[in-house]
Amino acid sequence: MNILEALDDKNLFAPHFRGPSWASWRAFLAALFALPMGADDAAIYRAATGRHCNPATPFNEAALIVGRRGGKISRSRDNCGLSGDIQRLRAIPGAW
């Protein structure tokens, strides 16, 4: 299961990350992990990066500038959950 499948899974994250406001995050995650992108995700990725080709291999790291209420804890929680580090984030107030 990849991160986008986990976001869509009703038993994992789907109830928490619904709606069009998550489209940019989904495009970012698809690019970060070099997952297949649909036309909408690819358009968001290209508009944000100015690149014309989708990533062919996953990135090793990413640096993000995210404003207030930008979903930072939510995204970190998802990524750590898939890598087995979810216990660490449970200690952050408001992370769940």
Low-confidence stretches: 82-92
Q: What's the order of the H and E elements?
A: HHHHH
Shape: globular
Termini separation: 22 Å
Query: How large is the radius of gyration?
Result: 13 Å
**Structure class:** mainly alpha
Q: Multimeric state of these chains?
A: single chain
Task: Give the averaged pLDDT, no decimals.
Answer: 75
The percent range for strand residues is: under 5%
Q: Percent of residues in helical segments?
A: 40-55%
The count of β-strands is 0
Number of domains: 1
Query: Count of helices?
Result: 5
Largest sheet report: none
What does this structure look like?
Helix 2 (23-32) crosses helix 3 (39-49). The two termini are 22 Å apart. Helix content is 46%, strand content 0%. The protein has 96 residues and is mainly α. It has one domain (3-90). The chain contains five helices and no strands. The longest helix is centred in the last third of the chain and has 12 residues, at 72-83.
Please give the structural blueprint.
Blueprint: H1 3-8, H2 23-32, H3 39-49, H4 72-83, H5 86-90
Helix pairs in contact: 2-3
Question: What's a quick, concise take on this entry?
Answer:
This protein is 46% helix and 0% strand. It has helices spanning 3-8, 23-32, 39-49, 72-83, 86-90.
